[in-house]
Amino acid sequence: KTTRSKLGALMLKPSLMQFKKGMDSTETGGAPLLGINGGIIKAHGSSNGTAIKNAIRQGKLYLENNVLQQIKSILTTEMED
Rounded CA gap, 7 and 68, in Å? Predict the structure, then answer.
């Protein structure tokens, strides 16, 4: 490895670590499955306590931010145009 490539890797490390954290199922908790009249947060069957906590937190945020209603509004507007 060259000094140049090592320097480049060092500069990218924080971004790559953040990306890795975002891809960690424990950190994200689960994936949203949104239907017409409701939705769920689907977690892995082997999720630990932290992942379940984060899945619940994610679901709470979806409810608080009225995500499903916002999606319905956008789709309705798009279909009317």
Answer: 45
| Residue 76, CA atoms < 13 Å, CB-side half-sphere | 7
Give me 35's structure tokens: 């239907």
Closest by Cα among 58, 13, 5 to 33: 58
**pLDDT at residue 64 is higher than 90:** yes
Amino acid found at 12: L
Determine how many CB atoms are found less than 10 A away from the CB of residue 43.
20
Three-state DSSP class for residue 57: helix
Query: Rounded to two decimals, what is the model's pTM?
Result: 0.64
